[in-house]
Amino acid sequence: MSEAIARAHPNIAFIKYWGNRNHDLRLPANSSLSMNLDGLQSETRVRFDSALSKDQFILNGKNQSAEPLQRLISFLNIVRGKASLRDHALVESHNNFPAGAGIASSASAFAALALASSKAAGLELSEKELSLLARRGSGSASRSVPTGFVEFHAANKDEDSFATSIAPPKHWALVDSIAIVNEEHKKTGSTDGHRFAETSPFQSIRVEGTQERLKQCKQALLERDFEAFAEVVELDSNLMHAVMMSSQPPLLYWQPGTLEIVQHVRQWRREGLAVCTTIDAGPNVHVISLQEDSDEVSARLQEISGVVKVLTAKPGGPATEVS
Ligand code: PMV
User: Fold this and answer.
1) Which numbered atom of ligand 1 lies nearest the CA of 141?
2) What confidence tens digit (pLDDT) does each residue in 212-227 have?
């Protein structure tokens, strides 16, 4: 019997990953860039035990079956294969933020699971190997392994598709104020969404331009140039949603409250506030600002009628083992 516990933060992508070049291996269609979200986290305990007759998965206190359990078993099979292990596992995981609402719970979940399960299986993986492993559970999870601001390199080969840190959390005092419009579980998850992406006539154009946008975003981030950053972050998010809306079946994650927030933020920026939006596969809006303005941004967001609550997160660290 062997056990390990790990924690990881979710991340918000400034340059989005949408669509795969290989669905089974989750090799992303394009590279992406993100920031880990401090304060929000998944904590996961994995115990491999020869006395267990099957894998068991408890998420936020509830025993899981069907798809979530199957996805966990497939992931554990990869770890068991690497460690030449046959034991089944008990996995207990807890998120301190709402799942399935565009706050990428799968990213922190699989990053924490990659670290906890590999340690519990007796494997000592490098950061690169952990990022490669986390990717097999969820593409964006590869970005929750390294610290701070992170680039996920798209490639044709399994061993080249992993994420690396481009700057530590203290590099730039940004805050993500996440305006929650709806906490319900989204109807179409990203695993299906990635498959639909290639049916959109805009996907190939989006993918083609990503490298240039990533270069611009990385430069703006490294130079702490908010204006340049805001422009490319909003463009990239809008391009992903254009692909989502025009795929077969079409995916429309936006709700009335989503648009209401986007319009307010555009107005605030016109008035001189350094603020911009980015939206993942859900209705909630990630409002990015400088730390010095974040109390003001959060207060303004709370006044918008469609906003249920606001979570705030600073740049976060890497996935860590809890001893
Ligand atoms: O890791 P996945 O399969 O949940 O995909 C993430 C997709 C987006 O959150 C919409 C974009 C991104 O890059 O995080």
Assistant:
1) 1
2) 999 999 999 999 999 9
